[in-house]
Amino acid sequence: MTHTFPRPPATITDETGRRIEIRTAGPAEQSALTELYADFDTADRAQGLPPTTERAIAEWLETILADGVDVVATAEAIVGHATLVPGADGPRRCELAIFVTQAYQDAGIGRALVCHLLGAAVENGVETVWLTVERWNRPAIALYEGAGFEQTDRNGFELEMERTLQPQTDNTG
After folding, report:
1. How many CA atoms lie within 13 A of 39 on its CB side?
2. What is the pTM of this model?
3. For a surface tag, which of 64, 96, 138, 163 has the fewest beta carbons within 10 Å of its beta carbon?
């Protein structure tokens, strides 16, 4: 399955009519992201992420913002964050993680974050993206399948999914 993914920055209107800015992020956003994750509801945490204490959140963010590819969604503040974290195989194979605050879920923001993150990944030379998702999380699985991810492991409580990225040609001149 071939997809062309948009590259940040972009402005979208979510499914409730809110104007959302999608942009790349880096170490300058660490403080705002720490605030976002410190307020995250326990029910919105998965697989131990995001961490629960401000210190652990700050340490986690310091690592992923320095080494990964990151995209944020902002309204009045940051309302969503998607990241690709390089693994032991290096920066060409990365793990995807995405978080959207509860008030902004189910409005298409997660889909926009994933698509723009994959566009940024292509620009950064990422070749393969993988993730794990809890088997019961049907909305997330549908989102990932819509972005071209395929299930690679169906054991246990989690599904592993993966997709290969193709370099995109830019015909805009």
Report:
1. 13
2. 0.89
3. 138
